[in-house]
Each structure stands twice: as structure tokens, then as C-alpha cells.
Design a protein that fits this description.
single chain, 88 residues, mainly alpha, two-stranded parallel ribbon, 3 helices, globular
Length: 88
Amino acid sequence: MIIKALLMGADGVLVAGCHPGDCHYKTGNLYTRRRYMMLKSLLETIGIEPERLRLDWVSASEAIKFATVVDDFVKTITELGPNTVGVK
């Protein structure tokens, strides 16, 4: 879904999940971390800046942290400019 979103013109994708070891779904975030690292390498290979993808651990009780993560990611994407790879 992430690659499809970027190839369809999304300027960036932010993935947020529970902190490792503190998730109702037990291991999903651990799988996510591994997939994220592999995906970052793949993005670079296909010509998409890896900075257009971000993974962060934020719990439901961390509203201020979530807002900070989103603001920081928007700043990064703004600095990168529009995603020019893929169909728009």
C-alpha cells in the first residue's frame, strides 16, 4: 500500500504504531520495523527519496508527541517538494 500510494503521487507516507513491547497486537510493530527498513532501501532503488516514508512509535496517550511527529514530517515533505515519481 505504501509503494502504491507513493507511485500514485502521494508526497509522503507516515506510519505510526504502538511502542515495541507495548502493543495489544504483540508483534505487529516488530514486523513493521523490519519491513520499514527493507522498504526504505527499495524506495531509493526505484527513485523515491526514502525520507518520504517515516515510521514512528506513538501511543494513544501521546497527543503532543503525535502532533510533533506530524509537524516534523510535514516540514520534511515540504522541504523535499512534490513527489515527481509515478502517475499523478
